């Protein structure tokens, strides 16, 4: 950490750059497979939130909550900030995020389609697409990060 004296002696531009360097966005992650999945989940969650806001405002809290959770994971992964929290099992948290989103969007989507409103039907369609994307993401996380001895079973 820099002391107050060190901060005074440097130029103000250097201090801002040094403090913001911890939040530098990894552009390679944003174009990777996982980054594109998180961006797609974020965009579809925002679309579903808008559809629920236009039709059934009672269900918009679930979409908004998942939007903020996905945004937080995208921020942590894109800035490599998750590496500072080394005591957390990030693949497990990401897997649980996907599973909870699958359950929430399945329930909310099927409940919304009963209103027969145009925006609610659109939210149902986008919800089913989003559930399939979350299921694919959960499958990839489980297969690459959490599968017990997947590569050891092939060697025996």
TrEMBL record:
<feature type="transmembrane region" description="Helical">
    <location>
        <begin position="119"/>
        <end position="139"/>
    </location>
</feature>
<feature type="domain" description="MARVEL">
    <location>
        <begin position="29"/>
        <end position="146"/>
    </location>
</feature>
<dbReference type="InterPro" id="IPR050578">
    <property type="entry name" value="MARVEL-CKLF_proteins"/>
</dbReference>
<feature type="transmembrane region" description="Helical">
    <location>
        <begin position="42"/>
        <end position="61"/>
    </location>
</feature>
<dbReference type="GO" id="GO:0016020">
    <property type="term" value="C:membrane"/>
</dbReference>
<dbReference type="Pfam" id="PF01284">
    <property type="entry name" value="MARVEL"/>
</dbReference>
<feature type="transmembrane region" description="Helical">
    <location>
        <begin position="67"/>
        <end position="83"/>
    </location>
</feature>
<protein>
    <submittedName>
        <fullName>CKLF like MARVEL transmembrane domain containing 5</fullName>
    </submittedName>
</protein>
<feature type="transmembrane region" description="Helical">
    <location>
        <begin position="95"/>
        <end position="113"/>
    </location>
</feature>
<keyword id="KW-1133">Transmembrane helix</keyword>
<keyword id="KW-0472">Membrane</keyword>
<dbReference type="InterPro" id="IPR008253">
    <property type="entry name" value="Marvel"/>
</dbReference>
<keyword id="KW-0812">Transmembrane</keyword>
